[in-house]
UniProtKB/TrEMBL annotation:
Catalytic activity of the protein: UDP-alpha-D-glucose = UDP-alpha-D-galactose
Subunit note: Homodimer.
Gene Ontology CC annotations of this record: cytosol
Protein name: UDP-glucose 4-epimerase
Organism ancestry: Bacteria, Pseudomonadati, Pseudomonadota, Gammaproteobacteria, Alteromonadales
Pathway connected to this protein: Carbohydrate metabolism; galactose metabolism
Amino acid sequence: MKILVTGGAGYIGSHTVLCLLEQGYDVVVVDNLCNASEESLRRVATITGKAATFIQADIRDTIALDAIFEQQQVSAVIHFAALKAVGESSVIPLSYYENNVAGTVNLLEVMQKHEVKNFIFSSSATVYGEANAVPYKEDMPLGNPSSPYGTSKVMVEKIMMDVVNANPQFRGVSLRYFNPIGAHESGMIGEDPKGIPNNLLPFVAQVAVGKREKLSIFGDDYPTEDGTCERDYLHVMDLAEGHVAALNWLNKEQSFTGFEAFNLGTGNGTSVLAIVNAFEQATKVNIPYQISPRRAGDLPAFWANAEKAKTALGWTAKRDLTTMMEDTWRWQSGNPDGYAE
Ligand code: NAD
Ligand code: WQD
C-alpha cells in the first residue's frame, strides 16, 4: 500500500515516514524543503534499510501534484506540509493562509480528481482556542485561536467537514497534536529549527550544546503549581506511531466515511520548570535560565483527554519524560548544527 506524505522531510514527517517504512508501507514524500533537508530522508533510509520516494514539489503547485498523483497510485495522504511558526504567522498571515489553507484546498482537489479518499491531517491542540476547559476533548467546539497559524488549522478542519458533506466517499482524520518533542532513539534524525528556536525543547537543547547562552522562561506568575505554563509533551515517535495507528484504523474501518478528530497527547501537563529539571536530570547538563515576561498568546495550561485515540485507535503515548529528554539530547549533541553538517 502506497502512502503520499506531504512535508515528509520535516520533523514529524520524517519520523512518521520511518514508522511507515518499518510497517511495510511504500512511501512517496512531497516536500518543497522550505523548512527541511533531504538529508533527513537519507538518514531514515539508513535506519530502516528502505527508501521513500522523494519528490521536491510544492503542494500549491497543481500541475506538479496532478503529475505525482498520475504517476503514483497512492491510497492515502498524510498531510504535514505547512508553515508552523506561531509568532511569524501574525507577521505574514497571508503566507500562512496561502500555504496552510490554499495549499490544502489544492491538495484536496487533486486528491478528489484522482479519487483518493483517505486523508490524515496534522492538526493541533491550538484548535481548541482559549474558550475550552482542560483537558481538551474532541467533542468540544472549535475555538478561536490567537494566531493566524492556529486559525489556519481550524479553517482546514472546517474545510474537511464541508468536503464530507459534498463528497460522501471522503474519509478524513484530523490528528490534533499536543506538544511533540524528542527524536528517534538512534539520534540520527530530530528537530532542526532554522534560526532561533520558537519552541521550548529545541531552545533548551541549543542552550545545552552551547549555541545559546540561556533560556528565557516566559512568565512564572501563571495560575499553575509553580507559576510556569503547563503543556502536554509527547515523544515524536509516539506521535509518529499515532499516524500509523490512524492509517491502520482507516484500513480496518472500511465502512467509515466522514470526518473524525483524535487528540494525540499523553493526558498529562508538565510545567516549563519541570521540563528544565527533567532535561538537567536526564542529561546531567546545566541549563541557565532567566524569568522573562509572558509571551503573547500563551495559555496557562492545557493537556489532552487522550481516551478517544486509546479506545478507537488502540494508541497511547508510551515513552516517558526521561526518554524524551535523553533522545532530544542524543540528537542535539550528536548533530549540533542539525542536518547542516
Ligand atoms: P516542519 O516544518 O518540520 O515540517 C513541515 C514540512 O512541510 C517541512 O518539511 C516543509 O519543508 C514542508 N512544507 C511547508 N510548506 C510546504 C509546501 N507549500 N509544499 C510542500 N512542502 C511544504 O514541521 P513539523 O513540526 O514536522 O510539523 C508538521 C505538521 O504538524 C505541520 O502541519 C504543523 O503545523 C503540525 N503541527 C506541528 C506541531 C509541532 O509542535 N511541531 C504541533 C501541532 C501540529
Ligand atoms: C511551550 C511552553 C512557552 C520557549 C506551540 C504552538 C502549538 C503547537 C506546539 C503547532 C510555553 C514556554 C517556550 C522559550 C519558554 N505547534 N517557552 N521559553 O506554545 O505550547 O505550542 O507549539 O501546532 O500550536 O502554539 O509550545 O514549545 O512554544 O512553548 O518559556 O524559549 O514553553 O511560554 O509555556 P506551545 P512552545
